[in-house]
Amino acid sequence: MLRNSLPALRVALGIEKPEDGIEFCEEYNDEVCTDLVSAAKGKSAVVERLREKVIDAFNDSLMRRVAT
After folding, report:
1. How far apart, in whole angstroms, are the C-alpha atoms of residue 52 and residue 61?
2. DSSP 43
3. Which of these, 9, 10, 12, 53, is most buried using a 10 Å CB contact count?
4. What pTM does this model have?
5. How far apart are the C-alpha atoms of 34 and 18, rounded to whole Å?
6. What's the pLDDT score for residue 29?
7. What was the pLDDT predicted at 52?
């Protein structure tokens, strides 16, 4: 989960520029990662919800790792 969604999370949080996130994804030839970054940089209501889901999924994965 982390490798292909972390760039999108960083873009959604404003930590990273979308171009940098897409470049990271392209290094791994990861189309899902690129799509997530592209969605995270958008402004529509649907994209806002997707952005929140990416952040929530990341938080959930962290909580699972901490719990083990």
Report:
1. 14
2. -
3. 12
4. 0.63
5. 10
6. 92
7. 82
* 23 vs 31: CA distance, rounded Å: 11
Residue pointed to by tokens 């952040």: 55
**Cβ neighbours, 10 Å, residue 28:** 12
Q: Residue 47, Cα to own-chain centre: how many angstroms?
A: 12
- Looking up tokens 């649907």 gives 46
CA–CA dist 23, 63 (Å, integer): 28
The total number of residues shown for the chain amounts to: 68
> Residues 22, 8: contact at Cβ < 8 Å?
no
pLDDT tens for 14-43 read 999 999 999 999 999 988 888 888 888 876
